[in-house]
């Protein structure tokens, strides 16, 4: 059963969007990366962005993360405008991100890498941390408990004290997902979560992504090239090409759109949902 078959069609109409990305224009020295891109993400929704290489998918994520500042448009996360905010300020609002290329500390253990995701939850200074008394001690213990819950959730127990650099690639991608979850985000950005994975690793990651949506109720925006994964997991999909949105809709609607087929695969191919 696909994700779209398990969720009512009228859900989005009765809820307020978690994220509104409205008419965004992003240019670099005359080169247009995004032109009139608009979409919304509803509570608990897995929203996917697909398109050919260079279509503007990473630019969308960089705007959401505060790395790029567009020349026009609005990006609202709940009641907060994101444009103009620094990346760390956006992270504190509750947006966490994974990366296509693994960005972990290879010499640190799985637990240490996950603990790094808790840094927004440390309301004390360096001296308090060294002393490890009072608030610092209580907070540290709470952080460790939260990390252990993520270890169980992502089935990382057997690797918890191993250096990340010694782990298989698919497990490292899972650790990076765990570090993002450790921040307790309100919105999760997944940048090609199964890139470079084999079939077994991809199936494991797909299962965890569904668990995040269905058990944690966490809305997600996912950029991914694996069309089978996108069609199986996403509630809605937006297709972009040359920085412009072509179609936004349910997976089957998007797969049947001739403009999407031409832009993404060419005239003689079809996307099989």
> Unreliable stretches, pLDDT < 50, 5 or more residues?
1-13, 268-273
Summarize the main sheet. Answer: 6 strands, mixed
Based on helices, strands and strand pairing, what is the structural class?
Answer: alpha/beta
Shape: globular
Number of helical elements: 10
C-alpha-based Rg, rounded? 19 Å
Q: What's the end-to-end separation, in Å?
A: 12 Å
- Strands ordered across the widest β-sheet: 6-7-8-3-9-10
Q: What is the N-to-C succession of helices and strands?
A: EEEHEEHEHHHHEHEHEEHH
How many discrete domains? Answer: 2
Fourth-level CATH superfamily of the largest domain: P-loop containing nucleotide triphosphate hydrolases
Protein name: Branched-chain amino acid transport system ATP-binding protein
GO molecular function: ATP binding; ATP hydrolysis activity
Domain ABC transporter: 19-267
GO cellular component, one term: plasma membrane
């Amino acid at each position: 059963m696909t994700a779209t078959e398990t969720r009512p069609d009228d859900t989005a109409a009765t809820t307020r969007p978690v994220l509104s990305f409205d008419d965004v224009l992003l240019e670099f020295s005359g080169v247009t990366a995004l032109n009139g891109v608009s979409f919304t993400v509803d509570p608990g929704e897995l929203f996917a962005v697909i398109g050919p290489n260079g279509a503007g998918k990473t630019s969308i994520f960089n705007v959401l993360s505060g790395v790029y500042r567009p020349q026009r448009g609005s990006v609202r996360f709940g009641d907060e405008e994101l444009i103009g905010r620094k990346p760390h300020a956006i992270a504190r609002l509750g947006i966490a991100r994974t990366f296509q290329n693994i960005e972990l500390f290879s010499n640190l253990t799985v637990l240490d890498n996950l603990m790094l995701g808790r840094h927004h939850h440390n309301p004390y200074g360096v001296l308090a941390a060294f002393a490890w008394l009072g608030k610092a001690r209580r907070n540290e213990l709470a952080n460790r408990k939260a990390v252990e819950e993520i270890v169980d959730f992502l089935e990382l127990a057997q690797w918890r004290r191993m250096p990340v650099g010694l782990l298989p690639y698919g497990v490292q991608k899972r650790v990076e997902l765990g570090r993002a979850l450790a921040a307790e985000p309100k919105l999760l950005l997944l940048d090609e979560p199964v890139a470079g994975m084999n079939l077994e690793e991809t199936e494991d990651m797909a299962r965890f992504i569904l668990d995040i949506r269905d058990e944690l109720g966490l809305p997600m925006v996912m950029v991914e090239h694996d069309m089978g994964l996108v069609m199986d997991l996403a509630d809605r999909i937006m297709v972009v090409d040359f920085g412009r949105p072509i179609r936004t809709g349910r997976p089957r609607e998007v797969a049947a759109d001739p403009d999407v087929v031409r832009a993404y695969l060419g005239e003689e191919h079809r996307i099989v949902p």
